[in-house]
Write a structure and sequence with these properties.
single chain; 386 residues; alpha/beta; 8-stranded parallel barrel; two-stranded antiparallel sheet; 16 helices
């Protein structure tokens, strides 16, 4: 398997969203009659699209709005919302910074200690609005923050790192034991990120409730350029979904796969589900909403790293409301709005009545799928060629 890249050295060919297309089957279904819902440990959500734990995307108000619309928005416990009593003032500084000074400013602002009382406060604010609070922390703080979050009424706890494995070596700090964490927590624990079959299978064996898939594909992420690490999302999702299916067959427990990053349009989202995803996680798409705290700016979770930033601040603009981005009506022609409608329409045209059937549709290799017949769109920079 693989192709020669040098003497005695082979490399496996992997695929991203721009290199594949979905082929219709023998039947079609009314898009209004397909089921796009998904579950995490019995918690059912009608929208299978999750807003990622980035400070330019999710704050308390955004999380409440997203929850009321039927989806999930993840609050970053390592960010501005838990470091500052008045996060609005700090966010405005980041928005106003010049491109040359943005990363340096973010590093300085994120150096302020996290206030544990703010973790509880933010979670309670979300829960008071009748929405399930979902939060994220890095492995080094997961045990402590997990307990605080659980006591405050958190519904789902996410542990995220650039690369997550069951086996981790370090003499400098205590290693997080995922088995112990999952047993201790009384709420679902979601873990990420990974991109390989074997690691996905090992992580599932620790008792997690869902798995995030993706290393470096995010719009504001620079991990692939800084570290050279990553696997294109179609291949990564397929491999981790295969691990999910094997684990289910062996243990009888279904661990949902959440493709995290690399998607900018409804078509990308549809391809992620066809690759095996049960849900997807987006940042860029929601950073464009009027409700997002970044006011049209978006920066990666690793941007504030004090020694080696692996993210950057980008301007995505404000294009519509959160409801328009999720459910339409779409005012743009580039596939960035009415994402749920796009998924429903795609499923209907492919003959998939639910997400499980969407995971079985035919995938073809099609590197010209975005350019074939699009000469005028390309020349005029409209539609698919903006």
């Amino acid at each position: 398997m693989g192709m020669w890249v040098g003497r005695g050295r082979k490399a496996r060919r992997c695929y991203g969203f721009d290199e594949i297309a979905l082929a219709p089957g023998k039947i079609t279904i009314n898009p209004d009659e397909v089921d796009v819902s998904f579950q995490i440990d019995g918690l059912k959500f009608k929208v299978p699209i999750i807003a990622s734990a980035m400070d330019g995307v999710v704050d308390v108000n955004f999380a409440i709005k997203m929850g009321k619309l039927g989806g999930i928005a993840v609050l970053n416990l390592e960010g501005i919302q838990t470091r500052y009593d008045d996060p609005e003032e700090v966010l405005n500084k980041i928005v106003k910074a010049t491109p040359q000074k943005a990363t340096e400013l973010v590093q300085a602002l994120y150096s302020k200690p996290i206030k544990e009382k703010l973790i509880s406060k933010r979670i309670r604010e979300i829960k008071k609005a009748g929405v399930i609070p979902v939060v994220s922390a890095i492995p080094q703080r997961a045990e402590r923050f997990g307990q605080i979050a659980q006591e405050a009424g958190c519904g789902i706890f996410i542990v995220q790192a650039t690369v997550t494995t069951v086996k981790h070596l370090s003499k400098a700090y205590k290693i997080l034991d995922f088995n112990k964490l999952c047993k201790k927590m009384k709420i679902p624990v979601v873990v990420g990120n990974c991109v390989t079959y074997s690691t996905a299978l090992e992580l599932m064996g620790t008792g997690i409730s869902a798995l995030l898939v993706g290393i470096g594909p995010g719009t504001a992420c620079t991990t692939r350029g800084v570290l050279g690490i990553g696997v294109p999302q179609v291949t990564a999702t397929c491999d981790c979904a295969a691990a999910r299916d094997f684990y289910y067959k062996k243990k009888g427990k279904y661990i949902p796969i959440i493709t995290d990053g690399g998607m900018s349009t409804g078509g990308d989202i549809c391809k992620a589900f066809a690759s095996g995803a049960d849900a997807v996680m987006l940042g860029n798409a929601f950073a464009r909403s009027k409700e997002s705290p970044g006011k049209g700016f978006h920066w990666g979770m690793a941007t504030p790293h004090p020694n080696l930033p692996r993210g950057t601040r980008i301007r995505v603009g404000t294009t519509g409301t959160l409801e328009e981005i999720l459910f339409g009506p779409a005012k743009l022609d580039d596939g960035t709005q009415n994402l749920v409608g796009a998924l429903q329409t795609s499923m209907g045209n492919l003959g998939a009545k639910d997400i499980k059937e969407m995971q079985l549709v035919e995938i073809i290799i099609a590197p010209s799928i975005r350019t074939e017949g699009k000469v005028f769109q390309s020349a005029q920079r409209v539609g698919m060629c903006k």
